[in-house]
C-alpha cells in the first residue's frame, strides 16, 4: 500500500524529468543549438549566478509583491461585488450589467492607457493585475451564491436562522466551491497579466529580466524566466489545491 | 387533551396567480394530535403545510396558533421535508444543532433516539437515504417544537426503510404527548398506520375529515385497517375515474 502511494506521488514528475533528460542529451549532442535553446544545465548555472549576484532575488521579490498586492486588491473587490450582487437584488440590478460590460474589455488592451495614467511605476502593474483577477472572482462568487440550493435556504428560515447565520452556515459554505474555482482561475490570470505588464512597461521584475536578456541575446536568462513563471504558476495551483482540501474537507471521497 | 384548539384555521384561501389551490378552509387541530393529510398530487396538501409553517402567506383568511396569529415563519413549528435538506458541509451533530443555542447534550440524546449515536461526527454524504431522514427528524426534534410538519418525508425511501421510519415517527410522537404532528403523504396506508385523524384534500377543500380509532400498533392485515384505507381511497378517487382519460 505504502509503495503504491509513493509511486503515485512520483508519477506526475516522470514526464518533466524525461523532458529535461532528453533536452539535456540533445543539447550535449548539439542537436539543439544553444542559440535556439540552451541546455538545462546552462539554465540552472545561470540561475545560480543570478541568485548569487542578487539580481534574480530582487526581480522575483518585486514580481511576487506586484502579484500579491494586485491579487489581494482585485480579489477583494471581486469578492465583495460578487457578495453584494449575489445577496442584493437591487445591487445586482444596479451594477451587474455595467460590470459585465467592463468585463468584456480585454484588460491587457488597457496597457497603453494605464502607462499614460501611471507611467511604468508599481501602480500600473498592480492596477492591471487588480483588473485581471477581479472578474473571475466576481463571476464565480456571484455564480456560487446564486447556485446555493434554495431548499437549504428555506430550511434555514424554518430553523430560525437569522440573516448572519443564513450567510455563514448556508450561503457562504454553499458558494465556496465556486469561489475557489474563481481563485484558481484568477491566479492564472494574475501571472499572465504580470508577465505581459512587466514585459511591456517595467524596469524590474521577472518579465523585465527576460526582456533585458533579449537585448543581450542572453538565451539562458530568457529560458530561466520562463521556467520561473511555470514554477510560480504550479506553486499557485498547489496552494489552491491545499486550500480546497482544507476548506472543502466534506467533499473528500474517503 | 384540552378542548381549546392548538391551531385554528379560518377562511383560509390560497391562490397562485388566478389559480385557486385552497378555498375558504376552516379547520382546528388539538394539541398532541397526529393528523395526516392525503389527496392527489397538486391538490394543495403541501400548500396547507407551507402555510402552517409560515413559508407562504395566505391570500385570505388566517391561521391562529395558541391564540396568536401566525405571521412570517412559525416559530413553534419545525418542518421535515421530502428531501433531507442536510447541510453537506456540516457533520451530523452540527446539522442537528442548527438553529439552536448550543445544546450538545440534547442533540446527542436525540441522535440516540433516532439510532444514530455513532454517526455524530460523520458528514451526511456518508449516510444512506434512511439515515439522512433520521438525522432530519432529529434536527426537527432538538428544538423541541410544539408542531412538527412532515412534508412527505418518507416518499423517497425504499419499502423497508419506510416501515422503520414510520415506527420511529410513531415512537417519537407517543413519547411527546404535547407534540402535534401533521403529516402530508400520498400513501394512504401510511396515513392510516400513523394518524389519529385523516383529512382528504380535494377540489381546493377538505373532502373528508376522518377520526381513526384503531389501536396501535396498526397492521395492514387488520380488516378495519383496510376498510378505512378503502374509504379514503374511494373518496380520493371519486369523480377522478371519469376525469382520468
Automatic annotation (TrEMBL), chain A:
The main location class comes to membrane
Q: Which domain of life is it from?
A: Bacteria
Domain (ABC transmembrane type-1): give its ranges.
56-240
Q: Where are the transmembrane segments?
A: 12-32, 64-84, 104-120, 126-145, 166-183, 222-243
Keyword Cell membrane (UniProt): yes
- Give the membrane topology: Multi-pass membrane protein
Q: Which PROSITE patterns match?
A: ABC_TM1
Q: Which UniProt keywords apply?
A: Cell membrane, Membrane, Transmembrane, Transmembrane helix, Transport
Checking InterPro entries in the record gives: MetI-like, MetI-like_sf
Location in the cell: Cell membrane
Give the UniProt family note.
Belongs to the binding-protein-dependent transport system permease family.
Query: What is the name of this protein?
Result: ABC transporter permease subunit
To which species is this protein native?
Lapidilactobacillus mulanensis
Taxonomy, top ranks, is: Bacteria, Bacillati, Bacillota, Bacilli, Lactobacillales
From TrEMBL, chain B:
Q: Which UniProt keywords apply?
A: ATP-binding, Cell membrane, Membrane, Nucleotide-binding, Translocase, Transport
One Pfam family in the UniProt entry: ABC_tran
Q: Which InterPro entries match?
A: AAA+_ATPase (IPR003593), ABC_transporter-like_ATP-bd (IPR003439), ABC_transporter-like_CS (IPR017871), ABC_transporter_ATP-bind (IPR050166), P-loop_NTPase (IPR027417)
- Domain named ABC transporter is located at 7-228
Q: Does the keyword Membrane apply?
A: yes
Q: Which Gene3D superfamilies match?
A: P-loop containing nucleotide triphosphate hydrolases
Q: Which terms in the Gene Ontology molecular function aspect does this entry carry?
A: ATP binding
The record's SMART domains line, in alphabetical order, gives: AAA (SM00382)
Domain of life of the source: Bacteria
Q: What is this protein called?
A: ABC transporter ATP-binding protein
Amino acid at each position: 500500500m505504502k509503495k503504491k502511494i509513493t509511486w503515485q506521488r512520483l508519477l506526475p514528475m516522470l514526464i518533466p524529468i524525461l523532458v529535461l533528460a532528453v533536452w539535456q542529451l540533445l543539447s550535449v549532442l548539439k542537436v539543439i543549438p544553444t542559440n535556439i535553446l540552451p541546455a538545462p544545465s546552462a539554465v540552472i548555472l545561470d540561475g545560480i549566478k543570478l541568485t548569487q549576484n542578487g539580481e534574480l532575488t530582487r526581480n522575483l521579490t518585486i514580481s511576487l509583491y506586484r502579484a500579491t498586492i494586485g491579487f489581494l486588491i482585485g480579489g477583494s473587490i471581486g469578492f465583495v461585488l460578487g457578495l453584494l450582487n449575489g445577496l442584493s437584488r437591487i445591487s445586482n440590478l444596479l451594477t451587474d450589467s455595467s460590470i459585465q460590460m467592463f468585463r468584456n474589455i480585454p484588460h491587457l488592451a488597457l496597457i497603453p492607457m494605464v502607462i499614460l495614467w501611471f507611467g511604468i511605476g508599481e501602480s500600473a502593474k498592480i492596477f492591471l493585475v487588480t483588473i485581471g483577477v477581479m472578474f473571475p472572482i466576481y463571476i464565480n462568487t456571484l455564480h456560487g451564491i446564486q447556485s446555493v440550493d434554495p431548499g437549504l435556504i428555506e430550511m434555514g428560515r424554518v430553523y430560525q436562522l437569522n440573516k448572519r447565520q443564513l450567510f455563514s452556515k448556508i450561503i457562504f459554505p454553499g458558494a465556496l466551491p465556486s469561489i475557489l474555482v474563481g481563485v484558481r482561475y484568477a491566479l492564472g490570470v494574475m501571472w499572465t497579466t504580470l508577465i505581459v505588464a512587466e514585459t511591456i512597461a517595467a524596469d524590474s521584475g521577472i518579465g523585465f529580466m527576460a526582456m533585458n536578456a533579449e537585448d543581450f541575446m542572453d538565451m539562458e536568462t530568457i529560458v530561466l524566466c520562463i521556467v520561473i513563471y511555470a514554477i510560480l504558476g504550479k506553486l499557485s495551483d498547489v496552494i489552491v489545491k491545499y486550500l480546497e482540501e482544507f476548506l472543502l474537507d466534506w467533499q473528500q471521497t474517503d | 387533551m384540552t378542548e381549546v384548539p392548538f391551531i385554528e384555521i379560518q377562511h383560509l384561501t390560497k391562490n397562485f396567480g388566478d389559480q385557486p389551490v385552497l378555498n375558504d378552509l376552516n379547520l382546528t387541530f388539538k394539541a398532541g394530535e397526529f393528523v395526516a393529510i392525503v389527496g392527489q398530487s397538486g391538490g394543495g396538501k403541501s400548500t396547507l403545510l407551507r402555510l402552517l409553517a409560515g413559508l407562504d402567506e395566505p391570500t385570505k383568511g388566517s391561521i391562529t396558533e395558541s391564540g396568536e396569529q401566525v405571521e412570517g415563519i412559525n416559530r413553534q413549528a419545525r418542518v421535515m421535508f421530502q428531501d433531507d435538506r442536510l447541510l453537506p458541509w456540516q457533520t451530523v451533530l452540527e446539522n442537528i444543532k442548527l438553529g439552536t443555542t448550543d445544546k450538545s447534550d440534547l442533540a446527542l440524546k436525540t441522535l440516540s433516539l433516532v439510532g444514530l449515536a455513532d454517526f455524530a461526527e460523520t458528514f451526511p454524504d456518508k449516510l444512506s437515504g434512511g439515515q439522512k431522514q433520521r438525522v432530519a427528524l432529529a434536527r426537527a426534534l432538538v428544538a423541541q417544537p410544539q408542531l412538527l410538519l412532515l412534508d412527505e418525508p418518507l416518499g423517497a425511501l425504499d419499502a423497508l426503510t419506510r416501515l422503520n421510519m414510520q415506527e420511529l415517527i410513531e415512537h417519537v410522537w407517543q413519547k411527546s404527548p404535547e407534540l402535534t404532528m401533521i403529516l402530508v403523504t400520498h400513501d394512504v396506508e401510511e396515513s392510516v398506520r400513523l394518524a389519529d385523524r385523516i383529512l382528504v384534500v380535494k377540489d381546493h377543500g377538505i373532502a373528508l375529515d376522518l377520526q381513526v380509532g384503531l389501536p396501535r400498533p396498526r397492521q395492514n392485515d387488520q380488516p378495519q385497517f383496510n376498510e378505512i384505507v378503502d374509504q379514503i381511497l374511494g373518496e380520493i378517487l371519486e369523480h377522478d375515474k371519469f376525469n382520468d382519460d
